[in-house]
Amino acid sequence: VKKTSEATLTTIQDMVTIEDYDVSECFHHSRSTESVKSTVSETYLSKPSIAKRRANQQETEQFYFMKFREFLEGSNLISKLQAKHDLLKRTLGDGHRADYMTTSRHPNGLFKTLTGPRRLRPRSCFNVKLFNGNLESFIKDSGQAIPRVVESCIRYINLYGLQHQGIFRVSGSHLEVNDIKNSFERGNDPLTDDEDNHDINSVAGVLKLYFRGLENPLFPKERFSDLLSCIRIDNLYERALYIRKILLTVPRSVLIVTRYLFAFLNHLSQYSDENMMDPYNLAICFGPTLMPTPDSQDQVSCQAHVNEIIKTIIIHHETIFPDAKELEGPIYEKCMAGGDYCESPYSEHGALEEVDNEGGTETHTSED
């Protein structure tokens, strides 16, 4: 760029020094009048017109300014990169020391180094992977009965997305999904600020991404055939009991997470008039994620049965999963915000209605 600019500048200087009617060359070879006339005529005809030469000069000047600007911007970028290179080289060179080097701004714009006690920044809070890892191992390593990513995403949807149309069906922003995912992997929780500043579809996408990437699906592969056989049971209550019997054989820690998730999905389906996601639609979204069909099975024929099983578990989750007395662990709560958000269990007149054992209703006042 520099060489091109210099050559262009030389061309411009030559253009500026040329005179429009320079006839000095006519007298160089002969002093004859006839020779002068003939040379002037040839010179005048050979030179381009004034307007054309001025247009060429303007075009050349614009080209020069463009290259000069490119040279300045390139020089500035090179200077910045060189400064970064020098700083990184100095920092990496001192990395073997026990004390780390901290930097501060010097009045002349350079960096000076100050020594301080060494701080280690952990890459991850846990030894076991969160995404694309083993759920049972992660719970054991982290001590989180419900992985934070599951609990936080569900809480966020509980607060801001129960009535969001097409939730779990509409894809979120790939960039935001990755940002939230990476934040959880670093041990942070980006959804705890109690502000609706995240796209609901992206949060839902993170939750699906977590379960889809598990090393072992939430419903174990070795139980796939047993679960699929329950489709032959037409009575839904008996089918639910059959599924319960199978799920009680999975590890306790996994069963607690499964119970938590399906209680949330049941709650979400109660808003199907607004979010358009009834139990069947939710089953279509979560079936391949929670209960993937083995390669040895026919994918097309099995998928409809898988969706029906997931739908049954969403609807009859209270029958299928043991309660807190039978299986100690976190329970999903419909109200997670407190205050005005919580739906009062009392009716408009301050009465709480309960269904008695005989199918009637008993009314209790709030004072009771």
TrEMBL record:
The keyword Transferase does not apply. Residues 347-368 are annotated as: Disordered. Pfam families: RhoGAP. Coiled coil: none annotated. The keyword Coiled coil applies. Residues 133-321 form the Rho-GAP domain. SUPFAM superfamilies: GTPase activation domain, GAP. It comes from the Eukaryota. SMART domains: RhoGAP. This is SLIT-ROBO Rho GTPase-activating protein 1.
